[in-house]
């Protein structure tokens, strides 16, 4: 009975996070494309937007909107890949292996999405090739 309770809280949150972040990233990428497509071959009107003692040209505003959309796309897709990384990490950690994992390998694999220098640990690449490939897509 205790095993069912422990496993019942894991079933949908990880995959849902990955899927929602992926769909959000794709939708934001389409919005980014459509925004720049709507600006293509149109002259930017002169004049400024003024909001609470702050004035910005229309060109600055368009650039800021495009940059914000690009940042949101990257953030959403990084969340999707990072969630997949964590799920794969725990699956790999729980899998039985012929050779036991050392604490150094586990620490390196877990920290690779946050620390670019761990990508240079070639020994861990051989132990976790898919994890390191996922981490490369985040960096």
Write the layout of secondary structure elements.
Layout: H1 2-8, H2 13-39, E1 48-51, E2 54-57, H3 58-94, H4 103-111, H5 122-127, H6 129-138
Helix pairs in contact: 2-3, 3-6
General description of the model:
A hairpin with a 2-residue loop joins strand 1 and strand 2 (54-57). 69% of the residues lie in helices and 6% in strands. The chain has 2 domains: 19-83, no CATH class; 96-139, no CATH class. With 139 residues, it is mainly alpha-helical. The longest helix is centred in the middle third of the chain and has 37 residues, at 58-94. It has 6 helices and 2 strands, in the order H-H-E-E-H-H-H-H.
Summary keywords:
139 residues, two-stranded antiparallel ribbon, mainly alpha
Q: Helical element count?
A: 6
- The side-by-side strand order for the widest beta sheet comes to 1-2
Based on Cα principal axes, name the global outline. Answer: elongated
Number-wise, the strands total 2
| Beta-strand content estimate | 5-15%
Task: Please state the structural category.
Answer: mainly alpha
As residue ranges, the low-confidence spans are: none
Give the terminus-to-terminus CA distance.
42 Å
At a glance:
The protein has 139 residues and is mainly alpha-helical. It is 69% helix and 6% strand.
């Amino acid at each position: 009975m205790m095993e069912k309770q422990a496993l019942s809280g894991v079933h949908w949150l990880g995959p849902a996070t990955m899927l929602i972040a992926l769909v959000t990233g794709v939708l934001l990428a389409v919005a980014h494309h459509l925004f720049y497509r709507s600006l293509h071959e149109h002259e930017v009107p002169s004049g400024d937007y003024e909001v609470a003692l702050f004035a910005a040209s229309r060109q600055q505003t368009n650039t800021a909107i495009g940059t914000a959309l690009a940042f949101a796309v990257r953030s959403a897709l990084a969340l999707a890949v990072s969630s997949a990384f964590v799920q794969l990490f725990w699956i790999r950690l729980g899998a039985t292996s012929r050779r036991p994992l050392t604490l150094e390998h586990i620490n390196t694999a877990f920290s690779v999405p946050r620390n670019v220098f761990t990508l240079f640990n070639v020994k861990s690449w051989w132990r976790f090739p898919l994890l390191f490939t996922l981490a490369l897509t985040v960096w």
